[in-house]
Each structure stands twice: as structure tokens, then as C-alpha cells.
Amino acid sequence: MRVVIAEDSVLLRVGVQRLLADEGIETVAAVENGDDLLDAVTEHRPDLCVVDVRMPPTFTDEGLRAAIECRRRYPGLPVLVLSQYVEERYAVELLAGGASGVGYLLKERVADVKEFVDAVRRVADGGTSIDHEVITQLMVRSKKSPVDKLTPREREVLGLMAQGLSNTAIAGTLVVSDGAVEKHVGNIFAKLGLEPSNSEHRRVRAVLAYLDS
């Protein structure tokens, strides 16, 4: 796997690069601003971008804007966003461009090497990985939406789906059977008005509806 890192903090940038190297993941470029990220993606066409939300010069949303532009130029480019805080609208905006191959993690998760590397590989493979804290805060601000139709357990299942977990992994987390999870997932799809499909696309659409609720 070939990765481009965009992070203005030298310590975190080098730390992530070394962490990935220990897992056999090559960093082809490590930059500190959005413009250099765009140039690096154009030059290297990486398998994944790991991007900080706030970078120079204004330290507001330069990283995210650059990531969205990268995905506009190269549709399907996997992007894993790292943020110090929960930036709710950023998560939704990134997913609005297509929820396949996107992640949003708080920087503190980098300290959990296994969790971070799992997220890197999942997003690079076209999946999603949304931080639980982001999901929790989005649920708090949720008002009228199709998600309101879900039971507490169905919301819990959908939240775990948003983190990128498979049905089997969800069953293990909730200590229930695979069949129970499949039933909950079916109910979620029905209540959100998602038509039957054999692809994973419905899961992505369900997650997007959840985050945008």
C-alpha cells in the first residue's frame, strides 16, 4: 500500500509515517499543507491519503478542502481524515461526495496502533471508518430524519456499521447472534427506504443517511 500523509505537525507526521512503515505500508510523500497534498496525489496516485483537517495558512479546513478536491479530481481516492476535535459538518461533507473509501478519526486514535492500522487498511479497501465520538455527537444533534424511526438497538447497529464493522464483528461486539444482526440490518434498510441489493452500497448509503441525519 502506498500512502500520502498531509499533516502540519512534524512530530505527528513523522510518527504516523513510522507507524505505517512498521506495518509494511509505504509513505510516498509527507506534506504539511493542502496545496502540497494536491501535488503529491497528482504525482504519486497513492492508494490512500491520511489528512489533517486543519493546516496552514489559516488552520481552519484547508486539509479537508484539499481532500475533497483530491476526490473530485480522482474519484474513489480513499481518504482518512484525522482531526483534533469533532468537526461535524466536515464528516458529513466528506461523505456527501461518496461514502466509499472514507474515514474520520480523532487524532487520539493514532495512539491505538491496531485500531489506527485497521482503519487505514479498511478505508484503503473502499470501506468506512468513522470515529465513535463523531457518531455520538451527530446522534445528539439529530432531529427529524428517517433515522428517528430506528429503535435504540437498530441505532446501535447502524453506529457500528458506520465504524466499518461487518455483521459478524457487530454480533461479537453486541454479544448477539449473526442472525439477530442480519435482522436488525434488514430492518434498518427497510426503515431508511433502501431497496434490496446484493452489493455493499446499501450499507454505505445507510451510514451516509445516519451521519447526515
UniProtKB/TrEMBL annotation:
<dbReference type="InterPro" id="IPR011006">
    <property type="entry name" value="CheY-like_superfamily"/>
</dbReference>
<protein>
    <submittedName>
        <fullName>Two component transcriptional regulator, LuxR family</fullName>
    </submittedName>
</protein>
<dbReference type="InterPro" id="IPR000792">
    <property type="entry name" value="Tscrpt_reg_LuxR_C"/>
</dbReference>
<feature type="modified residue" description="4-aspartylphosphate">
    <location>
        <position position="52"/>
    </location>
</feature>
<feature type="domain" description="HTH luxR-type">
    <location>
        <begin position="143"/>
        <end position="213"/>
    </location>
</feature>
<feature type="domain" description="Response regulatory">
    <location>
        <begin position="2"/>
        <end position="122"/>
    </location>
</feature>
<keyword id="KW-0804">Transcription</keyword>
<dbReference type="GO" id="GO:0003677">
    <property type="term" value="F:DNA binding"/>
</dbReference>
<keyword id="KW-0597">Phosphoprotein</keyword>
<dbReference type="InterPro" id="IPR058245">
    <property type="entry name" value="NreC/VraR/RcsB-like_REC"/>
</dbReference>
<dbReference type="GO" id="GO:0006355">
    <property type="term" value="P:regulation of DNA-templated transcription"/>
</dbReference>
<keyword id="KW-0805">Transcription regulation</keyword>
<dbReference type="Pfam" id="PF00072">
    <property type="entry name" value="Response_reg"/>
</dbReference>
<dbReference type="InterPro" id="IPR001789">
    <property type="entry name" value="Sig_transdc_resp-reg_receiver"/>
</dbReference>
<dbReference type="GO" id="GO:0000160">
    <property type="term" value="P:phosphorelay signal transduction system"/>
</dbReference>
<dbReference type="InterPro" id="IPR039420">
    <property type="entry name" value="WalR-like"/>
</dbReference>
<dbReference type="Pfam" id="PF00196">
    <property type="entry name" value="GerE"/>
</dbReference>
<keyword id="KW-0238">DNA-binding</keyword>
